[in-house]
Specification:
Length: 318
Amino acid sequence: MSGSAWLLAAIMLASGGAQEVTRPDAPPPSLAGTTFDESRNRLVAAGGNAESPGNVVTREWDGAAWARVSTAGPSSRNEPLMVYDRARKRVVLYGGDRANGAPATDTWSFTGITWTRLATEGPSPRASSMVYDSQRDRIVLFGGSGPTGLHNDTWEFDGTRWKLVVRDSAAASPPARALAALAYDSRRGRVVLTAGFAGFDPAARGPRMLDDTWEWDGRSWTQVNTPGPGARDHSASVYDPTRGVVILHGGGMLKGNAPELVGDTWSYDGRQWALVRDDGPPRGRHRLTYDNRAKVVLLYGGWAPGNIQSSDLWTLGD
C-alpha cells in the first residue's frame, strides 16, 4: 500500500504527476451527496449548497465525463446522505439541509431515471453518517448532530421503513458524535465507525475530536482496542474490496486549538490501522466511494484549505 497515490481522475500525464484542468462538464463546487451505482457503473452526485431553491440536481460521472441527468425529485439540499442499495439496484438518499436551512428527514430512491419518495418518518433531523449492510440488506445510520444536540442512537432502514434499534444514550453504544467516518466491511460483515466531533471542550475552548474505532455486527457495538488514525472530524471512509481494507482519508485535526485539514490516507484490516501515505489532497466534508468498474477508491468534492469548496475528483491508485 505504500506506493499508492491520489491522482486527479481523467488526468493522464507522462510524468505521472497530477494537474487540475477545467472541464466544461464538471459540476459547480458544492457539498453534494455521492455514491457509486454498481448496476450502471456511475458515480451519482446529488444536491449541494451551490443550488438555488427547487428540486435537487443530479449528476453522474461515467469514468470520462459528467452529465446532468435529472432535476426532478427531492427538494434542493446540502450534504444529503447517499448509499447504493445492492439488493434493489437503486441509490437511496436521506436527509440533508434544505436551501432554506431546515434539515430534511425524507428518504428517496433513484434508479437512474426517476426519483421516488420512500419513507416519510425516520431519524430526527440531523447531520449524520450512513452505510449499506449488504449481508443483512439494511441501511445503517449512526448518531449525528441536530437541533437537540449530539446523538449516539442507531437506526436501520429495510427498504420500506426506518427502525430505531439502539436508543440515544445507550451505555453500550459509541459516544455521541457527528462528522464521523462510517464504512461497511463486506468481507467481515461489520460496519466500521471511526473518529468524529464530540462537542466542545470548555477547558480547551475548542472542539473535542475522537480517535476511536467501533464495529456494528447487526446486534451490538464493540469497541476495537487499536490506535486509530488520530483524533479528527470531517473525514471520510469506504471499504475497498480489492485491497480487503477500509480506507479513511483526510478530515480536520487540531493544531493547537485550531482545526486544520489534512491529506493522510489510512487502511484498516479489522485488526489495526496503518498509514498508507500522508501526501493526498487535504479535504474535509468530502465523500469516498468505491468504483466497482475501475476497481479504485474515488474522492469527490468537500472543503479544501482556505475554505474553498471543491468539485474535483480523485482516484487512489496503486
